[in-house]
Design brief:
Two copies of one chain form a homodimer.
Chain A (H helix, E strand, L loop, with lengths): L11 E14 L2 E8 L9 E2 L1 E4 L6 H13 L5 E8 L10 E11 L5 H6 L3 E4 L10 H18 L10 E3 H12 L5 H10 L3 E8 L7 E6 L1 H9 L7
Parallel strand pairs in A: 1-6
Antiparallel strand pairs in A: 1-2, 1-4, 2-3, 2-7, 5-6, 8-10, 9-10
Chain A binds a DNA duplex through helix 5.
Chain lengths: 231, 231
DNA sequence: ACAAAAGTGTTGGCTGTACACCCATGC
DNA sequence: GCATGGGTGTACAGCCAACACTTTTGT
């Protein structure tokens, strides 16, 4: 189904969407990258991404890529910004709508990821990436830090059930500094968006730590009542 | 100069950039709109915008449009986000990179603006706009409010020299609520990013209000020293 | 019984907020 | 001299940051 083109005569260009995919596991943030499959720069490390198709929402293109590479269906992701430099891609004029995604590392089908030649790299020993992708990663990391401060997006990086020590560790990794566990607990619990479960996770200590769940409902109530966070 | 196209076979599309242009004058925020010049929906109210050219940075395209319509060269603007819905534009598949701009209303060459058939509308009596532009305006307004809280972008909307009562009024207009002038002064002056001048503006009172200038240098020092705002 | 991680409370300082009066000037 | 908007200070409350010990349990 071809619709009428009212804009003939103006320039068209390729539109890509690239995903900065963060994963978390104890003590470090990781990033999903893979060797680029097309020329130019074929084989060099790249973010995962794809061209957006004529009949495809930009967001859907990102979703498609994420599903393809991670096997996951409901990955959390948000638009970062659009990179529109004329020369950003030597392959052709191509703008890229960058998206950053947050993934619970445990759930990921590592086989599938590796089947696509993708790999998780610790942020601190990330190789340099193709095109302007290093810049996208820098920007995404800033955005993640900024955003984590006033929206509990950190939960997207943790499994459904998690312990407070895990949550603290996650925030320590994101902010790159030690947090005081007493103050952190007080603050996060005072928001009343966590539900304490009756189970303990004993994998990291003899005593065991209580598991919690993030309560999206209460979180949305809180937001709608005009509350302004600050972690 | 045509460069090699490595990506032939993938879809190309139109890329537009649309600007949400805010202006401020006492007691109200205004928005710059104009009657759309091309079919479809020719003649209906639209944000100002343009297609991005093959050899043009997306940001440059926005700059071009802003200059064309306002006559101003160094308008403050930032990317908002990209709208990528397949059906957002009935004229053809076209994604739009939205930018929001802030303008000192006094400086604008109103003749030039009107020569291009553009008009300033008060936000509260804005007509409904073409395509998804109502949504862009909503999003831009949210972003403006969010951003004004922790970055002094408000200054972009005021003339070079301004009084504190003016600044307070601006923030009242942005946040849509009354602020306490004592507390506002205390807070803003404690940031030490304003330079008090030896002149007074007597246009609004017999006593006259001292004029201030925004000190970009000190502001950047403050930022680099890792300070986190909150107005 | 001891090692290792989980969990818990108090205090002091700072920051935000609420609130009411005097000041300078043009008419 | 009075009306108009501009400018100033204080007191209270709530929040954040700093800080050290007890609890649980597997070995």
């Amino acid at each position: 189904m071809q619709r009428k083109d009212y804009y003939a005569g103006n320039d068209k260009m390729y539109v890509a969407t690239d995903c900065i995919v963060f994963g978390y596991s104890t003590d470090c943030l990781q990033l999903l990258i893979f060797p680029r499959k097309v020329e130019p720069h074929k084989g060099e490390w790249s973010l995962i991404g794809s061209f957006v198709k004529e009949d495809e929402h930009v967001r859907d293109a990102a979703e498609r890529v994420l599903k393809e590479i991670t096997g996951l269906d409901k990955v959390f992701f948000e638009q970062l910004k659009t990179y529109g430099d004329v020369d950003r891609d030597p392959g052709a004029r191509c703008i890229s709508v960058a998206q950053y995604a947050l993934i619970r590392l445990g759930e990921t089908d590592r086989k599938l990821v590796e089947g696509h030649g993708a790999y998780w790299y610790k942020l601190e020993d990330l190789p340099s990436l193709v095109l302007d992708h290093d810049e996208l990663v820098r920007d995404a990391l800033n955005e993640l830090r900024r955003k984590a401060r006033y929206q509990p997006i950190g939960f997207e990086l943790l499994p459904e059930k998690f312990t407070l020590p895990q949550l603290i560790n996650l925030y320590e990794v994101i902010y790159q500094k030690k947090l005081d566990p007493r103050n952190f607990r007080k603050k996060i619990l005072s928001l009343k968006v966590l539900t304490k479960l009756d189970e303990k996770d004993k994998s990291t200590s003899k005593k065991g730590a209580y598991l919690y769940k993030f309560n999206r409902e209460k979180y949305h109530q809180l937001l709608e009542s005009g509350y302004h966070f600050e972690l």
